[in-house]
Amino acid sequence: MNILLTVIGAVLAALGVVLILQGFSVLSGGPIDGHMSWGVYGAMAVTLGAGVVLLARRWRCGGICSVMALSSWRRAPHGVQRASWSTRARSISFR
User: SS3 sequence, 23-53?
Assistant: First the structure.
């Protein structure tokens, strides 16, 4: 699953680069040549593709384990009390 998401993210990012180059008239010869909106769409595609690649590389296991890794409300081990959000916020120090 991680390899598939990495490939999808890389292809999306590469497509975004092509859209940026065509949108800003660096790469000519296409029907979207010179339309600035396609450059913006390309930037969004690069950002989304890079995010998918980063998430895919960060996850260690596939399936539901990956979804649970993103959740901050996983079950605590038996007998351990989870700190509330306010307790966590007070323990963070900004320097």
Answer: HCCCCCCCCCCCCHHHHHHHHHHHHHHHHHH
**Secondary structure tally for the chain: helices H, strands E:** 4, 0
Question: To which H or E segment does residue 71 belong?
Answer: none
Joined together, the tokens standing for residue 92 give: 């963070």
Phi-psi region of 25 (alpha: psi -120 to 50; beta: other; left: phi over 0): left
Per-residue pLDDT of the chain (95 residues; tens, 9 = 90+): 788 999 999 999 999 999 999 998 888 877 888 888 999 999 999 999 999 999 988 876 555 454 555 555 555 556 555 555 555 555 555 54
Can you give the residue range of the structural domain that contains 7? 2-68
The reply to whether the predicted model has a pTM over 0.85 is: no
Domains held by the chain: number: 1
Helix (H) or strand (E) holding 78: none
SS3 assignment, position 82: coil
